[in-house]
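Example A, followed by Example B.
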Amino acid sequence: MATVSDPPPATPDTRPGERHRLSGRLGPGAIVFMVVAAAAPLTVVAGSVPIGIAAGNGAGYPAMYVVAAVVLLFFAVGFTAMTRHVPNAGAFYSYVGTGLGRGAGLGSALVALISYVTVQGAVYGYVGFLVDDLVTGYGGPSLPWWLWTAVFLAVTGVLGYRHIELSSKVLGVLLVAEVGIVLVLDAAVIGRGGGGEGLSSALVRPDAVLSGAPGIGLMFAIAGFIGFEATAIFRDEARDPERTIPRATYLALAIIGVFYTLSAWAIVSAWGDGSVVEAATADPGGIVVTTAAQFVGTAAADVMQVLFVTSLFAAILSFHNVLSRYVFSLGNTGVLPVACGRSHARHASPHVASLVTTAIGGLLMAVCAVAGLDPVLEIFTWLAGIASVGIVVLMLLACVAVVVFFRRTGLDRRPWHGLVAPGLGAVGLALILVLLVRNLPLLMGGSTPLGVGAGVLLAAALAAGWLLARARPNAARDLTTATPADSAPQI
């Protein structure tokens, strides 16, 4: 992880018309900590894996993480190949805009804002509930979930206001702790040869992988990777963007894919192929903690419950950093008010964008609290459903943009990087998107009207990009411009 004792000053805010940039010396390790923390590994293992097993393809569910990782690897090949040709740190909207034009770029920017606002809000609701549950479980007072959420909002706002190095150090510590406890559980299960049925072989058996509802399993698996794609948003703060961003992207994807597959397989092995579905269905929220108590001890189970909370906080902080940098970039390109694109003279941080992000999160949680929504069954499930569909839409558009950009410009003539891999990624993501849309009511807590409404919201945001491009012709005008260094084609 990169460390900087005295961050370089940001671009002064007093120069009219100048594009502000963030600064930093983040290496691949620091960025990996940031994006893997957003994926919330312990939260996925303790929360999504049991649901994927129960509602998806049972003991064959761990294979869905392999499938998801392969599809996202195809996406990552084109995504990273285009990194050196994209001039700013706008991530998805910069890539889509560069490849498909300003209308598509601005539409994807709006979808990205909605997606990251909702996924952050989903975790805010969940962490408030979980902290109250943890405190009352140890004999403490029961308080409204939104009071705990307000505490996390404040702490996240303070860290997001400061230099990115501080957040990366906090995330590094929390991530090592949550991954460590799960690896201890994995090692204990493997070391004891699994449960009564031994180590599971369902992972490599086609009949097990295709049993039940593999489409639903894949849907939950792909949701566990949300966050890894945000590496490019830290471009301006990376030590060497053209090398750091691709390395961080591949490393994050590999770590997440291997970790999820191994841990899901360990959970299946602990209970056995014939019993795991029944166990996961009976207690989806507690099966992993119960497994830890059985194979490692009650102390490990208690530690895991605490780290579950810190895992959610790490995800919140990471999503806050990503969202604030989207707001910052959109302020710089004229889509949002120019004040959002200002950087702090001392902390070299997007301080105004960070404050805006905190305010939006606070407002969203206040609305949810006043409406009396359940923090898990409604806030978490509804908002996470919107975010899952939105992120897959963005990745699909990015794959298409890569193919179109390289076919049009000839800047990268390598077939694998410019055509085959992103093309395969687009096909895979399109199939996943169909699964998500078909099951959107399920992601939205079983409500068809809410599922339809979420789909309409995202579609309207994407379409609004073309209207915004016409209404504000100077907004994000650099989206279709490649960097000057790209004048010579690659061989």
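Example B, a separate protein, is given below in the same form.
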Amino acid sequence: MYSGNITKLYLIKIAKWFMLTMPILMLFFQDLGFTVEESFQLKAIYSIAIVIFEIPSGYAADVLGRKRTLIIGSILGTLGFAIYSFTSGFYAFLAAELILGVGQSFISGADSAMLYDSLKADGRENSYMKYEGRNFSVGNFSEAIAGFMGGALAEISLRTPFFFQTGIAFLAVPAAFMLVEPQLYTRTQKATWKDIWNVVKYAMVENKSLRYNIIYSSIIGSATLSMAWVYPLYLKEIGFREIHIGSASTVLNLVVGMTTLFAYKIERKLRPKSTVWGTTLVITGAFIAAGLLHSLYVLPVLMFFYFSRGIATPVLKDYINRITSSDIRATVLSLRSLIIRANFSILAPLFGYMTDRLSLSQAFVIIGVIFMVLTGSSIFLFLRSLEKDRK
């Protein structure tokens, strides 16, 4: 009955991930005269907006319905790129990033919760990891194609990709309107901030397994998000043109897209402990390796990084979903996204500051060490809780 939601969620994922602007955004900022620090301040504003609205929007998805929040997020996403298309200047872009951040917060968590509950309503929740992997693959294949196209459009002008991006973002709006809400539970009272706090308290204080899952998954998510924004600057510095950076983005996202299709099989074969350790070492070590190499040899490092990202993202989300009830699932997934964005809102300006005052290579090494320390401080507790949940 709810299988049609899967196709519509794929379309929303495409509209959200077909990012023509991503491989050239930092170059666009530089072309307008922004420093690296100012560029990452704008992306930090985007993350701060998500931090502020992530939990309320996730709870809204649990109370008002996933469909309504996905509609709101899709409309705001279109508006944000429209502002980028027709304005210039730091403060205009700041407004665009705020709107895009709020829009992202309304989609984040609600899309995964809609997918899981649609499968559960049809008695297929055990297939979630497979479909989440496919959904993630759809996004990455979209990002892969968009990488090359964005680089090619940037050869015309660095603003051209933004015009096309606005139209692509709009595709999510009709798709969100056509979703069918699974009725798995009923709210009998009005939502309050106390209810939101109770969910957060349960996830981060009372339920230890859920807490360690969220913390570890958020750190890995922060690392993969950071790499997605910093590697175009790296490739530019070693001599890549815009179209070459776009092509590299295409290849890397094809790698992660193909990997997510089989992530559930890889996790079953390697077992959880080996999967977690392997992806952690690659994802954190890639930053340090890139900083030390500073040459074309970084390309295989990025390939391994994106391969590990393709495994880690759907697998870690599945671990969280397995121990989370349906009535708070969107809120919990939004809490994970909130922590990812909170980390990024601190680390992104720090990375820009270090790049402007030290060097890009040194910034890569330092940020890699930071991620290694953060994962090292949480991985043992996470693995212990994972083993306990599987007994």
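On Example B: The radius of gyration is 20 Å.
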